Amino acid sequence: MQHARAAARRKPFPWHVVVFLAPAVLIYTAVMIYPLAETLRLSFFDRTDEGARFWVGLVNFERLFLDPHWADQFWNALANNFYFFVVHMAVQNPIGVLLAALLSMTHLPGRTFYRTAIFVPAMLSVVIIGFAWKLILSPIWGVSETLLGLVGLDFLFGPWLGKEGSALTTLALISVWQYVGIPMMLIYAALLAIPEDISEAADLDGVRGMALFFKVKLPLIWPTIGIISILTFIGNFNAFDLIYAVQGALAGPNFSTDILGTFLYRTFFGHQLELGDPHMGATIATAMFLIILVGVMAYLWGVQRRMRRYQF
Amino acid sequence: MAELRIADVEKSFGKVEVLKGVDLAIQDGEFIVLLGPSGCGKSTLLRIIAGLEDQTSGTISIGGTTVDHLPPARRGIAMVFQSYALYPHLDVAGNWALGLKQAGETKEVIEERTKEAARILELGPLLQRRPSELSGGQRQRVAIGRAIVRHPGVFLFDEPLSNLDAALRAQVRFEIGRLHKQLGATMVYVTHDQVEAMTLADRIVVMHQGVVQQVGSPADLYRTPANLFVAGFIGSPRMNFLKGTARQPGSLELDHGASLPLAELRQPAGEVVLGVRPDGFAVGDGATAPVRGKVVLNEYLGRESYLHLELEAGGRVVVEVAPDNPVRLDEIVGLELKPRAAHLFDAASEQRLAA
């Protein structure tokens, strides 16, 4: 009796919650969770020459990190990838902050034009950007040598994309050129969100110009800069397209522009005489996933947690 | 400590004239309230004094020095904003120190001023808190502290109580008044709230549409408003206005016929407006009084009641009566004028007529 009454009083199962969540859960599982899980699973297998799959445990990872045939390429790609990221952090984000600060000046004629012009490359296809820059920088028919000559700097020109020492830097700077509009926009929005009153109060305190920016505005946009840094990190460690478009899958010259994305591509799909190896490919993908995961977590726990978001 | 002179200041935004020639001399240590409805130009005037806005013409001088070309920080002023405008990333002490550091003050001076302001505002235990960890009233006190540590000649307040709730408003208002007595500094305070103006000011400057309407002590403004605008703006509930014609001394012919004996009227004045505050009427006999009206609303407030009357002659008036007054709704009552309760204004120029 009592049981029956308690059951009747209990709330009915919230089926509507399940129904409303289902589409998102199903789609997300199909395109994100399942492929990710399958990739992680594949990295623990290998196959015989006949194509039979068998469990190998962590052997793939051991080969990737230690076997000279794989490890040389892996550590080279990882180091290049870090360099690629460092160039973005050191060049793209400071320039983005600078451009945003300039855009938010009170008296700036042509603000909309600059804002749009700087943002346009971010909307273009990487293939177009890569091809255009390849032409611009070409020592044979590129315009850059002529343009440098007009200001007397043609002695600086070199086949930047073709030299091992400069190719990766050049690619990183092309990428910076393309995407600098994104940090600029985010920081511009953050600067606009700072109330005018605070700038006026600072003005009354004698804090204006550079001092206003460094003592008042910059501390208030640190959280935004933090978010941009983590987006840059994720973007750079997933990068592939620009290198592939400009230098091809071999990431030449002599693998000097090889990053994890291109290394993964060659391994997984195969290239020229090399056959594709889905298991080693999955191993590289898993390593990339773990690197990004560790990077993001270290950032969230170590940095972002200590930063305050300010309410005005 | 400094006197402040505002000489013929005009300000236009494009074609819109916001200030049409303002002249004011404010003495050292005076508490001046700029009072007016929104859009009257009072905040613009304050911002021009602060140097946040440039006047179109005219000059501002503080302590005898013309400051028109000085940046805000070098004018010897400090300002308290309606929104507090504290630096969110700095704690209370940091908020106070930023301007002093920028001015190159030594550590000892900064520490001493911080202690002084903390003592005056009783904020000692909160010096290490950030603005987001403070209540609205505390934030406004921190903002006032940021003004105090600058040791300014003139304090400027821009509607400092508008963001506070009613109870806090009374408390912070009291504190600002106490602060003025304690520091003896010149203060210019902008508000649209007549209670703040009446309670705090040595002198009130009533502004309307960019023009100073009247300057005077709270009592002056209440007793002898210079024109219809001031008469209607100061006092709550607002003054009643009745139109009429003054053809002969001693009696005012109201529009729609009735004639009101008026000792104050010593000479014919033509078309006039009679202003009477709610406490200037006495309720009399509904049969014989010259002005009669029907009670349409009785607002009981405990210490007094306000009767809203629809006059037989047209128009509405509000009359203050004792709360135990036995009038009923729809009853016809007569109104008599108490002695010295009448304010007379010229109907065309809206200026006060010398009685």
Task: Describe the 3D structure.
The complex is a heterodimer of chains A (312) and B (355). With 312 residues, chain A is mainly alpha-helical. Chain A has a single domain (59-310), classed as MetI-like fold, CATH 1.10.3720. Chain A contains 14 helices and 4 strands. In chain A, strands 1-2 form a two-stranded antiparallel ribbon. A two-stranded antiparallel ribbon of chain A has the order 3-4. The radius of gyration of chain A is 26 Å and the shape is flat. In chain B, 24% of the residues lie in helices and 34% in strands. Classes of the chains: A mainly alpha (312), B alpha+beta (355). The A-B interface holds A 195, 197-198, 200-208, 211, 215-216, 219-220, 308, 310-312 and B 50, 52, 71-74, 77-79, 81, 83, 85-89, 98-99, 102-103, 130, 132, 146, 150.
Features:
heterodimer; A: 312 residues; MetI-like fold; two-stranded antiparallel sheet; 14 helices; 4 strands; B: 355 residues; alpha+beta; 5-stranded antiparallel β-sheet; 8 helices; 34% strand
